[in-house]
């Protein structure tokens, strides 16, 4: 690859490390600053960091590839994601921001689950933390695989070396600056992704004489919209739209709502975030669609549809711009990895290590400085395990991501909603709902119960049954169990009143 491209990447890496150093000097003196940025994150940073950490390399590689392969069927996944993200901003963000602060300043999602029921050291907190660390270690590994393969395919760098480069930069700024560094780098990375997903499809389209020429070339390989509607099934539509259900339970996304500086700032964050998401998703779909047309019209060989963005970047742009576009893919990958590392480390520190220490020796409370140090060790530990899992280049990416998305969505999604909206929800119901959702997803993915040995996930996306089972379990168990503390409903009422006061 030309030297100009490497120069663009070097500037990007230096900028990320500079942000990490800045955040280290600004917000890591206490655990609240390290984990949630002191709950003072601006709506602009909240919006773009949530979007960037959500979409990852899937936005620049997975979605264009899906559009390239299946045509308009990929649009329904995009519709489900947009609807889910909007519902997350409307239903979860305001209540979660207030409730986590009212519930004795909960810093992590598992801590909120436990303090919601006035049981700060209960097994509910530890079990939910274990689920987060397990799924996010796999999720982080999938991101590292994407980074390694990007370096291998675009820069002719050894796959394992690509892993170390990707992880080295991410761990450096996450280790230094914590949540503020992750959010600020995500903001920059979100801006880069936005420009890239507008620029690439527009420049590729200019290679055609007209819209009709482009669409005619594309329809040589994929059906047009009306034809795709004729072959669409109800189960297929539900599986695509069901991706939106996952938003309610993604810890690396909803933690942004906990960190925003005020409830009143959420409206601004929502407007910015949804605008960013609409433009980038349309850009990703357009990249895939123009890619089909370009390949047919000009005889372009595309061995892997998920690399169409990379191919366009190298084929249509000056090397300096090409390097910037490669940085956009790295930005998407790194933004998600850093968020997952921090949330995993937060759960290890706050929800497992601190709880176990308090249970064993209640009088030996950890200082703020000790807790931040342990949090940094947690980041490094999860990173090392994820790196070991990613060393095999044959690892699949999309299956790991979709499975983890479904696992979090089913285990935590209904629980988050019930915690915020059902005042008589019980701790027993919370535990049962969380476990039943996770188990259902795992059964759907791995149990070969169909006649030909296939799993149920080949019939319908596992998040749908998992979400339904968890919801039903939460409702039924709550009806037949009682809260162990009278303070639970009082805290719920306090959070509701505080939300009303802040919104008035």
TrEMBL record:
Pfam families: SSF (PF00474). It is found in: Cell inner membrane; Cell membrane. CDD domains: SLC5sbd_PutP (cd11475). PROSITE patterns: NA_SOLUT_SYMP_1, NA_SOLUT_SYMP_3. NCBIfam families: Na_Pro_sym, sss. Belongs to the sodium:solute symporter (SSF) (TC 2.A.21) family. PANTHER family: OSMOREGULATED PROLINE TRANSPORTER OPUE, SODIUM/PROLINE SYMPORTER-RELATED. InterPro entries: Na/Glc_symporter_sf (IPR038377), Na/Pro_symporter (IPR011851), Na/solute_symporter (IPR001734), Na/solute_symporter_CS (IPR018212), Sodium:Solute_Symporter (IPR050277). It catalyses: L-proline(in) + Na(+)(in) = L-proline(out) + Na(+)(out). The gene is putP. It comes from Alteromonas portus. It is a multi-pass membrane protein. One of its GO terms (molecular function) is sodium ion binding. This is Sodium/proline symporter.
């Amino acid at each position: 690859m030309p030297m100009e491209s490497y120069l663009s990447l070097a500037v990007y890496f230096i900028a990320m490390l500079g942000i990490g150093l800045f955040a280290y000097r600004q917000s890591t003196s206490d655990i609240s600053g390290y984990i949630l940025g002191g709950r003072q994150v601006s709506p602009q940073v909240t919006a773009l960091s949530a979007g960037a950490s959500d979409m990852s390399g899937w936005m620049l590689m997975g979605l264009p590839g899906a559009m390239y392969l299946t045509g308009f069927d990929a649009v329904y996944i995009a519709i489900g994601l947009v609807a889910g993200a909007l519902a997350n901003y409307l239903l979860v963000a305001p209540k979660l921001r207030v409730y986590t602060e009212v519930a004795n300043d909960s810093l992590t999602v598992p801590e909120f689950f436990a303090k919601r029921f006035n049981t700060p050291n209960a097994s509910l907190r530890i079990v939910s933390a274990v689920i987060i660390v397990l799924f996010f270690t796999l999720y982080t590994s999938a991101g590292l695989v994407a980074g390694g393969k990007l370096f291998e395919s675009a820069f002719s760098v050894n796959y394992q070396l690509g892993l170390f480069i990707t992880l080295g930069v991410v761990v450096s700024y996450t280790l230094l600056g914590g949540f503020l560094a992750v959010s600020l780098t995500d903001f920059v990375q979100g801006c880069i992704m936005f420009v890239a997903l507008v620029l690439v499809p527009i420049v590729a389209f200019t290679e055609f004489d007209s819209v009709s020429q482009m669409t005619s070339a594309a329809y040589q390989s994929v059906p047009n919209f009306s034809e795709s509607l004729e072959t669409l099934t109800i189960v297929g539509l539900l599986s695509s739209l069901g991706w939106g259900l996952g938003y309610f339970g993604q810890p690396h996304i909803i933690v942004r709502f906990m960190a925003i500086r005020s409830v009143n700032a959420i409206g601004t964050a929502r407007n910015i975030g949804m605008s960013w998401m609409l433009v980038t998703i349309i850009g990703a779909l357009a990249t895939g669609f123009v890619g089909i047309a370009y390949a047919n019209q000009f005889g372009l060989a595309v061995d892997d549809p998920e690399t169409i963005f990379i191919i366009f970047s190298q084929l249509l742009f000056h090397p300096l711009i090409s390097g910037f576009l490669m940085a956009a893919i790295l930005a998407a990958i790194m933004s998600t990895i850093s968020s997952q590392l921090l949330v995993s480390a937060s759960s290890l520190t706050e929800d497992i290590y601190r709880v176990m220490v308090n249970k064993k020796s209640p009088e030996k409370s950890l200082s703020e400085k000790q807790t931040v140090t342990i949090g940094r060790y947690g980041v490094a530990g999860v990173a090392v395990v994820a790196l070991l899992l990613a060393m095999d280049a044959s690892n699949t990416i999309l299956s790991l991501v979709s499975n983890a998305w479904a696992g979090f969505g089913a285990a935590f999604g209904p629980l988050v909603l019930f915690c915020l909206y059902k005042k008589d929800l019980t701790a027993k119901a919370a535990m049962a709902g969380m476990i039943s959702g996770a188990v259902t997803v795992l059964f759907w993915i791995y149990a070969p119960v169909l006649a030909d040995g296939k799993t149920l996930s080949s019939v319908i996306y596992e998040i749908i049954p998992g979400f339904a089972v968890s919801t039903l379990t939460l409702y039924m168990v709550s009806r037949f169990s009682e809260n162990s503390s009278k303070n639970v409903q009082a805290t719920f009422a306090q959070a509701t009143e505080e939300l009303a006061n802040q919104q008035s």
